[in-house]
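Handout, page 2. Input:
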Amino acid sequence: MKKYFEYTDAVSNKFWEISLKGKHVLISYGRIGIKKPAKIEKIFKGQTASEDAKKFADSKIREKINKGYLEK
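Output:
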């Protein structure tokens, strides 16, 4: 699963992207047009790792939508 969001207002022009692959979550974010955006990588361990990663990704997506980000 890969999702891309943007937030634009009078002073901001930002993006946020999340990629979920099994137990591995990668988040990229920054200003739109930046060459090297910030990245956060999170790898879940244990028997429920894939399920935990999915829950984590869903909660982060909800958080961004509540802040006003729009999916593109």
